[in-house]
Design a protein that fits this description.
The chain is an alpha+beta fold and 256 residues long. It has eight helices and eight strands.
């Protein structure tokens, strides 16, 4: 009778051990970790691979260490020059210290999203509309540095921040188009004026050289005649130098 009871107790104990082992054994993938709490106190991080947790006495929180993509919802932003725009962005981050991500903040995913939204509005509100459109990389780096400073205490690393879209209303789009057209016209007028200035300066230099060297003036006249002679339909007017006209007496008046 005693041996029968002993065998039953041993079998029952073995079954209980197997049940505890079955409930306590877990297999974690390479990118997963268990944050373990024993009687409510943090006792360590386990994984990856085969992990044993004592049922009832210990409970765990599973944390994924892979890169997460946070799509920041569209935010209404007022730029520094009082232009209303709608901006959306995306944040890439990963959990680097699972224990801090679970202990320091109640829900790190929700906290990450809310902080990204407020930081996006705050940073973009300090820039003009032209800067939002032309200096995105600098703004992205600024937002990333601010987020990384806060996320670091939560055991989270920000990998990248990208502004996806900056949407304007139709009125502002037309105003920007008119501004761009006016800017192009201004540049065209400036370039034209600079060309006239450079041409005038070159003509002045050429005039000074020709005035200092009369032979150069004669050579230039002959080259002009050669160019005109190529067109048979042209009438050639030969400019006679004043020195030669004076030598031939063609410059004297009738009374001379």
């Amino acid at each position: 009778m005693f041996s029968t009871n002993s065998s039953f107790v041993i079998a029952l104990a073995s079954l209980a051990v197997l049940a505890i082992a079955y409930r306590g054994i877990s297999v974690l993938r390479e990118y997963e970790r268990f944050v373990v709490f024993t009687l409510g106190r943090f006792t360590g991080v386990k994984g990856p691979g085969l992990v044993f947790v004592v049922p009832i006495l210990q409970n765990v929180v599973r944390v994924d260490l892979r890169v997460r993509v946070l799509a920041v919802p569209v935010q209404d932003v007022i730029s520094r020059d009082n232009v209303s725009v709608k901006v959306s962005a995306v944040v890439y981050y990963r959990v680097s210290r699972p224990d801090e991500a679970i202990i320091q903040v109640e829900d790190f995913e929700e906290a990450t999203s809310q902080l990204a939204q407020t930081t996006l509005r705050s940073v973009l509100g300090e820039h003009d509309l032209d800067a939002m459109l032309a200096e995105r990389k600098q703004i992205n780096d600024n937002i990333q540095s601010i987020l990384d400073e806060y996320y670091h205490s939560w055991g989270i690393n920000v990998l990248n921040v990208e502004i996806k879209n900056v949407d304007l209303n139709e009125t502002m789009i037309r105003a920007i188009a008119r501004q761009a057209e006016a800017e192009r016209n201004r540049r065209a007028k400036v370039i034209d004026a600079e060309g006239e200035l450079q041409a005038a300066d070159r003509l002045r230099q050429a005039g000074e050289i020709l005035a200092a060297w009369p032979q150069a003036m004669q050579l230039r006249s002959l080259l002009t005649l050669q160019h005109i002679a190529g067109d048979k339909a042209s009438t050639i007017v030969f400019p006679l130098p004043m020195e030669l006209a004076g030598a031939l007496g063609l410059g004297r008046g009738k009374g001379g």
